[in-house]
């Protein structure tokens, strides 16, 4: 079996072998604690559904620095590992960048410096503000390749594959073949321009699911508290007899609600809305939402937004919460509503 000659790799392996199991665990705990206490990258994008490769499902994220991350739990499952990280602490990584899934001595001759430099878990903030931990997505095929090189070396020497590694190697083989298939399809899609059309088709499907072709009957949908809180945050007195709203509240509502439901929904609602002879819409935007998905998502969104309003003391503070938890779709810069509106008053 080949011997790893890289001095950095050999030094790391030697130091790791000199540590007791408890020392390894303590180093991992200390490293995890220091990472959580520091400034963490934030996820700008997260999986809305798992990335499927064969029978495997991967949860992914893209961080603000453009690092592509596979969550630690799905990373381990895709390699046939049954263990799961404890509360996202990354405790399965021990000293000198040697995670437990590479600590078997049989794997070590195939560990390159590239692998060694990329096995640190990545700690980040999820879009919801929680804790996330994962690995650089590029590490996954590198680790799978180590397992397959281990298999090939054993077979070349007419040695059997140890039973404890059999299912892991099978998972690595399936993963590598799946990645190859996904990779070639992605290249063809990009080369032919189909990638853009495919994304457009996905958008059309989303819009079809959210926007109904016929008007739904009018039912009171926006709770009174939504407007009570909006008046308060805009520095206005909420009327007790009849709610006459400032005209620019329509722009605020579009920004707070409809621009954040799904990509392109606001534009599609406006485009499909029947209008009177004077050009005014015949109904409320929510009457064009589908009952099974669009209207249900609207109610969920209104409940969340109203809670954020209650927690906020200023409109600026509310906007910050809103952008963090319900960012606008397909926009990277915070855009204000159309026209100029005062921060308070009518």
Which helices and strands occur, and which strands form pairs?
Blueprint: H1 7-18, H2 21-37, E1 41-46, E2 51-53, E3 56-58, E4 60-63, E5 68-71, H3 72-78, H4 113-116, E6 122-125, E7 131-136, H5 139-156, H6 163-192, H7 194-210, H8 224-233, H9 249-256, H10 265-272, H11 294-311, H12 315-325
Parallel strand pairs: 1-6
Antiparallel strand pairs: 1-4, 2-3, 4-5, 5-7, 6-7
Describe this structure in words.
With 346 residues, the protein is an alpha+beta fold. It has 2 domains: 7-192, no CATH class; 206-325, no CATH class. Helices cover 46% and strands 9% of the residues. The chain has helices at residues 7-18, 21-37, 72-78, 113-116, 139-156, 163-192, 194-210, 224-233, 249-256, 265-272, 294-311, 315-325, and strands at 41-46, 51-53, 56-58, 60-63, 68-71, 122-125, 131-136. Strand 6 and strand 7 (131-136) form a beta hairpin. The chain is elongated and about 85 Å long. The N and C termini lie far apart (79 Å). Residues 85-96 and 333-339 have low confidence and may be disordered.
Strand content: 5-15%
User: Average pLDDT across residues?
Assistant: 79
Shape, please?
A: elongated
Write down how many β-strands occur, each being a DSSP E stretch of 2 or more residues: 7
What is the radius of gyration? Answer: 27 Å
- Total count of helical runs of at least 4 residues: 12
Summing up helix and strand content along with how strands pair, one would put the structural category as alpha+beta
Termini Cα gap: 79 Å
> What is the H/E string?
HHEEEEEHHEEHHHHHHHH
Give the tally of structural domains. 2
In the predicted model, the low-confidence regions spanning at least 5 consecutive residues are 85-96, 333-339
Q: Name the assembly state.
A: single chain
Q: What's the story with the biggest beta sheet? A: 5 strands, mixed, barrel
Can you give the helix content as a percent range?
40-55%
- Strand order across the biggest sheet? 1-4-5-7-6
